[in-house]
Specification:
The chain has 470 residues and is of the alpha+beta class. Helices cover 52% and strands 6% of the residues. The chain has helices at residues 3-13, 18-23, 27-43, 48-59, 104-118, 175-215, 227-240, 257-274, 283-324, 328-335, 345-357, 391-399, 423-432, 434-460, and strands at 66-68, 83-90, 124-125, 135-137, 146-147, 166-171, 380-382, 388-390. Strand 7 (380-382) and strand 8 (388-390) form a beta hairpin.
Length: 470
């Protein structure tokens, strides 16, 4: 299947809005522009094979007689891609050397251009594409035209004084300007669409955050609180790594759009399998969950649209190179390298917003675990070094006369007393983790009771702590 047909099917298959389809790259129109460029080059006898030959002449080890001149692509003030095709000729008289293997019609056309330039006729050329065999990208002039420069390129004082002077033959092209103007305009439309949609998704995330905050208030503040279901949802969402891999070996790289789609489906089925939706107490939570899933689908749709158009851009530039030998696929992407269209920050920016504005509204238990017992820090004690431990673990450290903090090795353990109890944090933990706090408190009380029983039993046996045979 040809890419043009596949590209159209993809755009229509995902049911993008009409304004999105209007902003998409017009692949078929760009193909027609490439045919115009081919015809224009053919009129000058510059076939794709001929341009490849001239490019090889430039890179040959022997002294070239016809060479190409190139420079780094630049943006004009109007941000348009303005190229021109320049053939640099080394000869004493500025004409085409006879030893250059050119077709007769090509030689006649180029010699006519050289003659016009030799006569000092200022030629105004419509900007056109350039890359191989003498491609040179220059900033656009104020009137969007280029004045031909017929001067020699070597500067005075050059060490290679014996080399023949170099003359630039500027080959006028116009169809390629149409090609790159169209492509640049369409990329600009995609940038605008992407910026608008990103702002809309961000706004939806902020609104959704406010609503979820209301339905997930602590149970002490609301009888219909869905604190625990939403905590489980967000924990599952973080662990699934929908947009970025959670594996160290993958360097947390961004997932492909197909992987993202599969992860979203897995996330939905996993929630259903765990029965999270059925545990909602507040009727609004079901609606908010659907909105949360919709936000992720909107991000996926935007990422897929950008990926489809990036593929179309690569394909059309590759076709342009194949048909004309003007290797634009290496210069044009660098020209638009700073455009949002090519950057990969879209997923990062939206995931950052999700993480900071939505996922953080519900505290996760992992952030409040004691470093020693790996359970919730019941009656947390904050040492002078600012590290926090549960009171039972700290008491054990003091009984064993351990002076140093297990984390930073600061000499602060034996200095801790009742004033180090972090009352504010303890109230926070009891409010947002009531079940875990009660369970841990019960375990601590059982442990204390057992220690007291063992101490009394030991004293009754004359200090013996082992088994006694009567």
């Amino acid at each position: 299947m040809k890419f043009a047909h596949a590209f159209t099917e993809q755009l229509q298959g995902y049911e993008y809005p009409s304004e999105w389809l209007d902003a998409a790259i017009r692949y078929r129109q760009l193909k027609k522009c490439i045919k115009k460029v081919q015809r224009e080059l053919s009129e000058l006898g510059l076939t794709a094979d001929m341009l490849k030959m001239l490019a090889k002449e430039k890179g040959a080890g022997s002294e070239p007689t016809v060479i190409a001149s190139s420079c780094t692509p630049e943006r004009s003030p109007s941000k348009s891609f303005v190229p021109k095709l320049v053939l640099t000729v080394e000869s004493e008289d500025g004409g085409l050397p006879v030893n250059v293997n050119l077709a007769p019609e090509t030689r006649r056309a180029l010699e006519e251009l050289v003659a016009r330039q030799r006569q000092g006729l200022a030629t105004t050329v419509t900007p056109s594409v350039v890359e191989a065999a003498g491609k040179e990208h220059v900033p656009a002039a104020a009137d969007n035209t280029i004045d031909v420069d017929v001067g020699h390129t070597p500067e005075k004082g050059n060490d290679d004084e014996d080399l023949p002077p170099q003359h630039q033959v500027i080959i006028p092209l116009s169809s390629d300007h149409e090609f790159f103007s169209t492509l640049t305009h369409e990329i600009s439309l995609i940038d605008t669409l992407q910026t608008r949609e990103e702002a809309s998704i961000t706004s939806n995330i902020v609104t959704l955050s406010d609503h979820i905050t209301c339905v997930s208030r602590p149970t002490s503040l609301s009888r219909h609180s869905d604190l625990y279901p939403w905590r489980e949802i967000f924990q599952l969402y973080i662990e699934s790594g929908i947009f970025f891999s959670t594996r160290e070996c993958d360097n947390h790289k961004q997932r492909t759009v197909d992987d993202v789609e599969a992860k979203i489906k897995w996330f939905g089925s996993e929630m259903e399998g765990r029965g999270i939706v059925k545990s909602f107490r507040n009727k609004k939570s079901g609606v908010l969950l659907r909105q949360f899933l919709q936000v992720n689908l909107e991000i996926l749709r935007l990422l897929r649209f950008r990926e489809i158009n990036k593929t179309a851009m690569r394909k059309i530039l590759k076709k342009f190179d194949k048909r004309t030998s003007l290797t634009a696929s290496s210069s044009f992407p660098s020209f638009i390298a700073s455009d949002p269209f090519l950057t990969s920050h879209l997923a990062k920016a939206l995931c950052f917003t999700l993480q900071n504005r939505l996922l953080t509204i519900i505290p996760q238990l992992d952030d409040y675990l004691c470093p020693i017992c790996s359970s919730i820090s019941v009656k947390p004690v904050r040492l002078e070094c600012s590290h926090v431990f549960c009171v039972r673990c700290l008491v054990k450290l003091q009984r064993e006369r351990k002076r140093f903090c297990p984390i930073c090795r600061g000499d602060v353990v034996l200095k801790a007393d009742s004033s180090n109890l972090d009352v504010g944090l303890w109230n926070f933990l009891r409010q947002f983790f009531p079940k875990e706090a009660r369970e841990k408190q019960s375990e601590n009380e059982k442990e204390v009771a057992f220690e007291q029983f063992r101490a009394v039993h030991s004293q009754g046996l004359g200090g013996l702590s082992g088994c006694v045979v009567m």
